[in-house]
């Protein structure tokens, strides 16, 4: 049954408890008794009865008020039940079906009575039903709650056992739609998350994720127990052994039954595991350090990665998803600090290092969530990457044609750069790919890269009317021909779109030329050259010709000027402040923020200018400044597109009006940064006007006749700011606290880790007062 039909049917049901007249639970172990307790506590059935051969459990359940009746004999209490829950060992289910059929034949049960189970295998349940009933009953709905606990039995029951746990329902074509909808409603009413799955697929999945780990745990304990020195082995066993083998304390009879019931899938999983085990054995024998590090690194990262992917969250701790900043106003910052590595360059170092021939060593890599998403994607495509370790990475390149298809969709977290640049790379590969992200990223426009890629011959499918992720990309082996070079005139300057097309052009036949209306950041062009790939730059026209190669080398990532911008503005708007930021990247396509602040009369100076990894860097010193409002030149907008949120804070502290135009790009970032910043500025008492492509801000800075800096007076009030989980919004309003009269609370700051891990700690180091509330209890 389709989910749409299911939803319509479910909405037509009476969702006010009780859902059933009489529920009969067969088996009062942990799962059966917990389900019964949850049904009782939520008032989901008028009557509740149970069958169990353990008489004390029945007696206690009746005394506790859980059951209305109970017996060791199903025929004694089954009459009138409209739902039967089978919670017995899997090998005993067929005998239960025999008893149920007898009750139907005797007229104790209606032929459409709903029957379900909680067993961890499904094909054998269906086969048992066929054997007993001849044809599958219309009320049969096989199900499996993915839940458990350390202890078992009636006394271990918990009504909350299924809350936020998955329950798999196998929707059989023979089952009535009403039976499926009512059982789904029942599970959702006890707090479970219900999903549908084919029975054979369920058994294969569970063989790998549950049955195989239990089998291995039993086997390892048996192996060690068989050693002559087994006492010492168990005495000195470390925590890893205890954690892994804990499940070997499970009920042997239950697992004996499961292993036989799911024989085919478990044997297949064991065979596959054996191949992987032999591979690792050989790597150790051969002392193949690179391959072993790749395997271990991919496994370590995948363990963490899939948790975020399934939850559709960035790579932040899920306990901190309601994190906030509580900031006490302060008015002075000072010191010399190092800013984390440049995010844009970190992304590109992973991409080009992976595609190069040879080894690439990266220093200064930004270990933020966005860059880690890119790193994980290339690990998923078979690249061995060691690290990150304090900003150091070693990438063992696989060459231009060495990427392998990922077995799962590539998860980009919250990183638009990862998704858009990877689209260009993947559009040229031989294999199919799917790119997805968290809830926020999956709302951002992707047709801006998909459409020009299609003009090169890419087959790429975006989602929905607005052209968002997930993106499905068809490999060239299926298409039957390579990408073709193109000439593309960009309607809006965007480094992401430009880079996407240039990267696709590395595999295209002929030359790919991108013409941009304004200069945008040129990290891709610079890094391609650093890896030995020819790039032609003629004014605003950038070209690459397909068919070349990349050669690995050393990449030093400079400090990120976008991150430095928050501290530049912090020093400029506060009183008696002087702050030096060391070795910040001053790529001329990124220095718009410096140029704009200088036009606003900021006191900024550069020193120790040099080059690191092909990128210009310098120490930046900024002092307290009497800022003035300006009309921001449109040619500087693409050079400061990421820094405008904090520039709006500077404009609020300036004397007079600041006008921004030509910045529509801000509306399609992690949030609509024009609307969200205007909302926050209004909350803090700033008069501003939103326009189609910018913002007009009435600065509240004080006029001075002597020229002395006068940043003593607050320009912001206090209040509660909603960042919409946009990292730059959160950090910008943190800077506003330097000129605030009252405390500022910023909600949704967990995504700061996407670009600037350790921001709050560094801000406090120079004199700010940010208290982080993780929201964890």
UniProtKB/TrEMBL annotation:
Q: Where does phosphoenolpyruvate bind?
A: 343, 416, 444, 496, 673, 728
InterPro entries hit by this protein: 6-PGluconate_DH-like_C_sf, Enolpyruvate_Tfrase_dom, Enolpyruvate_Tfrase_sf, EPSP_synthase, EPSP_synthase_CS, NAD(P)-bd_dom_sf, PDH_C, PDH_N
Annotated 3-phosphoshikimate binding sites: 343-344, 348, 494, 496, 642, 669
**Pfam family for this entry, one:** EPSP_synthase
Report the superkingdom from the record. Bacteria
- Kindly identify the residues recorded as the active site: 642
Q: What CDD domains does the entry give?
A: EPSP_synthase (cd01556)
What does the UniProt keyword field contain? Amino-acid biosynthesis, Aromatic amino acid biosynthesis, Cytoplasm, NAD, Oxidoreductase, Transferase, Tyrosine biosynthesis
Instruction: Kindly list the biological process annotations in GO that this record carries.
Output: chorismate biosynthetic process; tyrosine biosynthetic process
For this UniProt entry, which residues form the secretion signal? none
Where is the protein localized? Answer: Cytoplasm
**Entry's HAMAP family?**
EPSP_synth
The Swiss-Prot or TrEMBL record describes its family as follows:
Belongs to the prephenate/arogenate dehydrogenase family.
Q: Sum up the protein's function in the record's words.
A: Catalyzes the transfer of the enolpyruvyl moiety of phosphoenolpyruvate (PEP) to the 5-hydroxyl of shikimate-3-phosphate (S3P) to produce enolpyruvyl shikimate-3-phosphate and inorganic phosphate.
Q: How does it assemble?
A: Monomer.
Q: What is this protein called?
A: 3-phosphoshikimate 1-carboxyvinyltransferase
Originating organism? Psychrobacter nivimaris
The gene name on file is aroA
